[in-house]
Design brief:
catalytic activity; binds ligand PAZ; 8-stranded mixed sheet; DNA/pantothenate metabolism flavoprotein; CoaB-like_sf; alpha/beta
């Protein structure tokens, strides 16, 4: 009898196992199929035209604490970098697939959506009951409107939303896989602020996490509660400073698997991949950016610090020295574009990539 032939099947790789586990344990967003169909049509259209296409991810990802989510953890990102960069990519002839956190800044509308307390501030009453742009805003608004209409009419911009970290990862994987036919004409520009920690579904409460014992009697699995509140029953209506430790909410988060390796090697192996690295400690920024590049073997890491991200970034690329890019004339720029609110300042953040402002 012949010896059995050793199996040629390679042992499963840890990244693939982590991917299978994560994506089967965390349900996809309800619109994933619809978004995938839109993305496929968009990508195929531009691939057929031989046009470069960039997938921009933008904004923060939420970490739900409950399956029927009332509360979630979030982060600071408003999507300024992503929305502003999208306008520059369009200007450079790229088709832009803009995967963004729902209600974060969008290309073009970003100039108006968060710039004053209310977009109505940009409008005034015109003749015969019409509504028109205020005189001081009209020229810029016309310029932005034309760019927006042009992108929309030429089918150059597809905008898809996500909310939670798992929505984001499902969407990213599906879209990145669709980008394969673009080969090197496909660019992934990962500017979203992606949570590093999450609550896995098997530890997530189905319903709103309760802060008192008041509903315990309704839960059949629990001991029936006394019908009247006594000193044993905890409620928080008196804002007591002596809350028992056992009643505090302790959140136990797992690390979100790092899928950049899967992205680089499996989902979009021929695409050019640009990731961002955000830190708050200037001493570790470049080290962490270089570490990420060495580990995931992609094309470029753009590093930025929370406090200076609107004015400077560092490009860390394989085989090249680190390159800092700074907006050289911040005070001048501030006055020239009339910065008066944080949103004005934020609108410049994505313009670090290029020197001249987008404004006409
Ligand atoms: O959205 P925003 O313009 O306020 O911030 C942009 C940014 C800092 C989120 C982005 O430049 C970035 O660094 N993204 C990656 C963050 C990270 O996961 O490290």
């Amino acid at each position: 009898m012949m010896d059995s032939i050793p199996s040629e099947v390679p042992p499963p790789n840890l990244h693939d196992l982590a991917e299978d586990h994560y994506f089967s344990a965390n349900p996809p967003p309800k619109d994933l199929d619809k978004h995938t169909a839109l993305a496929r049509e968009f990508i195929d259209y531009h691939a057929a035209a031989g046009r470069p296409l960039v997938l921009i991810t933008s904004g923060g990802t939420t970490v739900p604490l409950e399956k029927q989510t009332v509360r979630f953890i979030d982060n600071f990102s408003a999507g300024t970098r992503g929305a502003t960069s999208a306008e520059y990519f369009l200007e450079a002839g790229y088709a832009v697939l803009f995967l963004h956190r729902q209600f974060s800044l969008l290309p073009f509308s970003r100039h108006y959506s968060h710039a004053t307390d209310c977009f109505l501030d940009f409008l005034r009453e015109g003749p015969n009951g019409s509504v028109v742009a205020r005189d001081e805003d009209a020229a810029k608004m016309l310029h932005v409107l034309r760019k927006y209409r042009d992108a929309r009419d030429k089918h150059m911009l597809l905008v898809l939303p996500f909310v939670s970290i798992s929505d984001y990862l499902h969407e990213l994987r599906s879209i990145a896989r669709l980008m394969k036919p673009l080969g090197p004409l496909g660019l992934l520009y990962l500017a979203a602020a992606v949570s590093d920690f999450f609550v896995p579904p098997d530890r997530m409460s189905e319903h709103k996490i309760q802060s008192t014992d008041a509903a315990d009697s309704v839960d059949k699995k629990k001991e029936p509660a006394k019908s009247v509140v006594d000193e044993e029953t905890f409620d928080n209506f008196d804002s007591s400073p002596t809350v028992p430790r056992s009643k505090s909410l302790v959140i136990d988060l797992d690390p979100v698997p790092k899928f950049l390796k899967n992205l680089v090697e499996g989902w979009s192996p021929q695409g050019m991949i640009v990731s961002f690295k955000l830190e708050t400690d200037p001493r570790i920024l470049v080290h962490k950016a270089r570490y990420s590049l060495d580990r995931y073997q992609h094309h470029l890491v753009i590093g930025n610090l929370l406090s200076t991200r609107k004015w400077e970034v560092v490009f860390v690329a394989p085989g090249s020295p680190d390159r800092w890019i700074r907006i050289p004339t911040v005070p001048h720029k501030q006055s020239s574009v009339g910065i008066s609110t944080p949103a004005d300042a934020a609108s410049i953040a994505g313009e670090v990539e290029k020197d001249e402002p987008l404004d006409p």
